[in-house]
Design goal:
Strand order of the largest sheet: 6-7-8-3-9-10
Largest sheet: 6 strands, mixed
CATH superfamily of the largest domain: P-loop containing nucleotide triphosphate hydrolases
Length: 595
């Protein structure tokens, strides 16, 4: 049961899959550390055997053994790095897709979690091929080197043990001293970059309103605070690193001095003097390496914690039972949505049912909750309470990717991606299914239905015009709307949620939109469209009035437009015809007051 739960976490599952690579890397690290002893043994033999006996043949054989051993050492070191590199690649292959899906689709994630998840993943993955991981693999062998020092002489072993414990204490102290600073610096760095990115996107507004100097000062203040904190961490870390280098060099020199003193007293051989210094230096090297890479180690640890927490969110990639294509029924029950991070209610206890093929106008004053409701209906926002059902199935029961192909959603501020107009309208289907004439026909058909075809043909490169990474993608507000509407209409969806599609349209554009709604009615599509313009009400079947996040009215268009003085069920002759023609003045005034 526990394994099944852990499998839902793509990071842990990928790390477990890399266990074999780490085990072999650890095995090779053991062999490498054994071969690290070869130069010390070589020196010991030269001083103790070759020099006293003047044995040239012995020196040749020892040199040959040394050369072969160092070649094997180099090969093993290369293989170890390849193993860690393959572990990094496997981690990318197994976890990156799921993490990206969560970034784009996890409803419970904060904006900061989404922004930093992939950066944390890259930090963690990069650590697998850096010096820090090598030091971690070498560290367990330090006791072996200390034991060898004891074999040379107990006092040399005791010196090595004291040196290792002292440097380890310095490493632990450095960790405690810099842990909080590194964590705060990382968070402030991410926030600073996000703030700068937003200012870049809004640079046109900043220039127009004379805000450039103020924004520059604001970002410089953020950077100054960040640099100050980075300096404090670097200063603290640098102090501990300097202490570590001092202690390592001191203890290596003391090992030479101790070895010389023991040799003078004929307790060890002359070769053991240098061997003791080399072996003790090798025992202390992993500690120094970890301190050198401490910033990376702490960054990787923080990255793992943040990413592990992010990966505990519900997995949206889990396969769902395939449901038939939706007919278009929308049922909303007891829907409540609160503003993120507060108790302020945006939508309160919303209930209504839209039958397949109906067109519903969503109206109400600004801030009534129209955009929020459309975001929930389209699946872009998770409600706090209640549920939305499509063809009697909850949204959670649908495979969101499959359902999305049958949904057309146009947000109030159309978001276009930095790609071609064709790719935006086609929802990047060429990346999934490949391009071709059939896809081109679908794109052109959607553009024609949206009234965008002629407009797009006048772009610099037509459908192949590439939008840029800036607000609007380089298009005007009206152009963005028609391209976004074409994207919503792509591949003939049976459900459409349109948020003020006529907000930036002129009279001709609104006339085309009326024609588009007529075509959708003929096709039997279900449409929920929010609007502030009463002219669009001529094309709808029902009207849903929101005020302060609550439903004030949900009725057929004729009943909603009927003068308030006329009791329900009693309609003067010609009133219905007048309503259809858009001449019900009392009804229009009533809806204008709602808007």
């Amino acid at each position: 049961m526990t394994d099944g739960l852990y499998d839902l976490n793509p990071l842990r599952a990928a790390l477990r899959a890399c266990k074999r690579h780490f085990l072999f890397a650890g095995l090779f690290s053991g062999l490498i550390n054994i071969l690290y002893l070869v130069p010390s043994i070589f020196m010991l033999q030269v001083y103790d055997r070759v020099v006293p006996t003047r044995g040239g043949a012995t020196l040749f054989v020892l040199t040959l053994i040394l050369t072969v051993s160092l070649c094997v050492f180099a090969i093993l070191d290369s293989v170890r790095m390849r193993l860690l590199l393959r572990a990094s690649v496997r981690l990318e292959r197994m976890a990156a897709s799921n993490i990206l899906h969560r970034i784009l689709g996890a409803g419970g994630a904060t904006a900061l979690q989404r922004a930093t998840a992939m950066r944390d993943f890259d930090t963690l993955r990069g650590t697998l091929t850096g010096p820090a991981i090598i030091a971690i693999f070498d560290a367990p062998w330090a006791p072996i080197y200390i034991l060898i020092c004891f074999l040379l002489h107990p006092w040399i072993g005791a010196l090595a043990l004291v040196a290792t414990l002292l440097l380890t204490a310095v490493a632990i102290a450095s960790d405690f001293a810099t842990r909080k600073g590194v964590s705060e610096t990382t968070l402030r760095s991410n926030a600073s970059y996000r703030s700068q990115d937003y200012s870049i996107q809004a640079s046109e507004v900043a220039r127009s309103l004379g805000m450039r100097e103020a924004l520059v000062r604001r970002h410089l203040h953020e950077r100054a605070d960040l640099v100050r904190r980075q300096g404090e961490v670097a200063e603290s870390s640098g102090t501990f690193l300097a202490i570590t280098k001092f202690l390592r060099l001191l203890f290596q020199s003391l090992a030479l001095a101790l070895g010389a003193w023991l040799a003078i007293n004929q307790s060890i051989s002359a070769g053991s003097i240098f061997a003791a210094s080399l072996i003790l230096g090798r025992a202390l090297q992993p500690v120094e390496q970890i301190l050198n890479a401490l910033k990376n180690v702490l960054g990787a640890r923080n990255a793992y914690r943040g990413l592990d927490e992010f990966c505990k969110l519900p997995d949206i990639t889990i396969a769902r039972t395939a449901l038939p294509a939706p007919r278009g029924k929308v049922e909303v029950s007891n829907l409540t949505v609160r503003a993120p991070g507060s108790d302020r209610v945006l939508l309160k206890n919303i209930n209504f049912v839209v039958e397949p093929g109906q067109i519903v106008a969503l109206i109400g004053p600004s801030g009534a909750g129209k955009s929020t409701l459309l975001r929930v209906l389209s699946g872009g926002l998770e409600p706090d309470e209640g549920e939305v059902r499509i063809d009697d199935a909850r949204l959670d029961d649908w495979n969101r990717e499959d359902l999305g192909r049958h949904v057309g959603y146009m947000p109030q501020t159309p978001t276009l991606f930095p790609a071609t107009v064709h790719a935006n309208i086609s929802r990047f289907q060429a990346a999934v299914e490949g391009g071709g004439e059939a896809l081109d026909l679908k794109v052109v058909h959607a553009a024609q239905l949206a009234g965008a075809h002629e407009l797009i043909l006048h772009f610099a490169e037509g459908y192949d015009t590439r939008l840029v990474i800036r607000e609007g993608g380089g298009l005007s507000a009206g152009q963005r709307q028609v391209v976004a509407l074409a994207r919503a209409l792509f591949d003939s969806p049976s459900l459409l949620f349109l948020d003020e599609p006529n907000a930036h349209l002129d009279m001709n554009g609104e006339s085309r939109l009326m024609h588009t709604l007529g075509e959708l009615r003929k096709r039997g599509a279900t449409v929920i469209v929010s609007t502030h313009r009463t002219g669009l009400l001529q094309a709808v079947d029902k009207i849903l009035l929101l005020r302060d996040g609550e439903v004030q009215l949900f009725a057929n268009r004729e009943d909603a437009l009927r003068p308030q003085s006329t009791p329900v069920g009693e309609q003067p002759d010609g009133a219905a015809a007048g309503t259809d023609a858009g001449h019900n003045d009392d009804g229009d005034r009533r809806l204008e007051g709602a808007n």
